[in-house]
Amino acid sequence: xxxxxxxxxxxxxxxxxxxxxxxxxxxxxxxxxxxxxxxxxxxxxxxxxxxxxxxxxxxxxxxxxxxxxxxxxxxxxxxxxxxxxxxxxxxxxxxxxxxxxxxxxxxxxxxxxxxxxxxxxxxxxxxxxxxxxxxxxxxxxxxxxxxxxxxxxxxxxxxxxxxxxxxxxxxxxxxxxxxxxxxxxxxxxxxxxxxxxxxxxxxxxxxxxxxxxxxxxxxxxxxxxxxxxxxxxxxxxxxxxxxxxxxxxxxxxxxxxxxxxxxxxxxxxxxxxxxxxxxxxxxxxxxxxxxxxxxxxxxxxxxxxxxxxxxxxxxxxxxxxxxxxxxxxxxxxxxxxxxxxxxxxxxxxxxxxx
Length: 354
Description:
By secondary structure, the protein is an alpha+beta fold.
């Protein structure tokens, strides 16, 4: 409806300009007419005059150009598609003026040119016909380009969403696989901690089913997930592992993409604690200040675990998710002597601004 309104406004202005110019021309040539009569006459005459030009403009925009673009005809045929209707429209306007406007609207009050197709008048109509057609074709081109850009944008967005879902689906089974291994190891030992581990796993599964599908969750929920996971892992490692989790948060309601931090913590347990034969440590620090998130994870490791770290799927997926979700982010990895550190910086307000 908005597009139709714009077209009506455009043609009204085009008709008004023609009527305005004809009004002063008629006043100079037919002095016996009153202003009201002259205005009525030129309004009707200008309307009849532009009808063929309107038809030409819409033919070129919706039929002529479509045939040229879609049907891939020869150069001569393409010229014919444009030129022949153009000449026909000019002839129709000329015939309308000579056979209808002059004798009936202007009541033969002045002498028209003795030439039916006056070359000067013919050239004038050519220019007047070209202007509205060019304007509409330009607008049509702009609308088409905008539609193409929007379609391309949506396709890219769908592609990125599909890739993000794939990464999450790849991450969740990976996490569950590791946790089920933990439960299996405890059950083999007939540990009294097995029921508690199963319960915590149930809570984690509930989160993954009902919360991880959301675009964002509160930082408080993400921290609760991390704490549940850490407590679950600490049951397995008992006193052989020292875990410290420090948090400094200015806004618990700040939104964050779900499961963004878990792979970094999981990586520390899998390639640090699980592969160490001696006492080990994991230090986790989370700082949130005015949507600026700083998350660091340090863990001890033995040299034998170096190769497995480089092939870790969790870090790779987290890095790719960051690229897809946040515009302002940075993930850095450091390896020192028997210490592996991951540092993540994210502007949480840059979510979705890719």
